[in-house]
Amino acid sequence: MNLENLVKTLLADFVILLSLFGIALGRIPTLRMNRATIAFSGAAFLVAIGALSIQDALGAIDLNTLILILSMMIITANLKISGFFDLAGTAVLRASRTPRRLLVLIMGASAILSALFLNDTVCIMFTPLVAVLTLRSKRNPVPYLIALALSANIGSAATIIGNPQNMLIGASSGIPFLIFLKRMAIPSILGLFLAYGAILWGFRREFSRGGIIEVPPLSSPRFVQAEEFNGPGEMKNRVYKPLLLKALAAVVLMTTAFLLNAPVTAAAMVAAAILLTTRRIKPERVFAELDWTIIAFFGGLFVITEAVGRTSAFSFLVQRGMPLVGQGMGRFSFFILILSNLISNVPAVMLLRPLIEWFKDRETAWLVLAMASTYAGNLTLLGSVANLIVAESAKRYGIDIKFGAYLKVGLPTTILTVVLGTLWLSFF
How many domains does the chain have? Predict the structure, then answer.
């Protein structure tokens, strides 16, 4: 290797390590950067130093995955604007009369909605409702908020469209929506029971004292006409029926297409296009609700993982490590669990995608990757974006979710759900 190539290799390794470190940490000390800007900048610097050509970098970006994520965000944004999540959340809370019943309904609603829409959005919309309800009822809000995060992660694992890493796996593996759902539904349902038990055990004092849950009257959404819907002011707790019905119809059509084995990305894109074809709402209003950082994050991360795959260290890992990991799903899921908590679940999935070919049963390997990387997010408070959304949103109401309080529930839940999920997918 000549000096020029040596310098290029060392620079590429430095950029990759710094990028992965920043992504894992969520920031780079002294710089105002988040995961999206770190990933995008890392990709740009890799191209700038010649580690990848611009053609290779663009070729590494999986447009199928990006279009699927964008389409689901558009659908979710329309539901949010229409007032669907406020309506659903309040309906759940109105049915809650006791602490345990409230816990069951929060977990059930969070899991089901997270399987159909992005789990992060469910946490954004439900956290204020749960916080206000529990505080006004003089309950400890922490276990209910932790339950919201845990169940959102567990429920999102059940479908291809539940979270970004599942969308990536769905686009890469080609597993039909219905097959994915059939094999992942039972682990998710059983996982909810395990999480429920862990919360009852971890917060015994809260659930042993009984009491009645009182729903605050201010949490009731109201239906509005077009003039008020399109007028100025905050849209919170306002429901616009025409858009709500149209959005729900689009979701039903999309889900039907999934069940008929239509390409997932195509079905989601058509549903999003139907919602964008409207006289009721300006496009700017929908696009303002989209999390564009996810697109930038994924785009940059695709390029970084392409560069990682070309390093000698990665080749060494594949040659020496994968024959051991590939001997069984148990070792593979444990490896995913550790890696997902070191560098976050989406980067872990991107790095491990090429290694699926080592397995004889590739479908099961893909599903184990989806299951373990998602459930890994429940290990600590910092383990997933959904957890952080709940924790940060709760602070606005004076609620501080301690790292230790989360860990005493998250640790047993994660270990038990990953073990159970691995066993189920290995034998059924």
Answer: 1
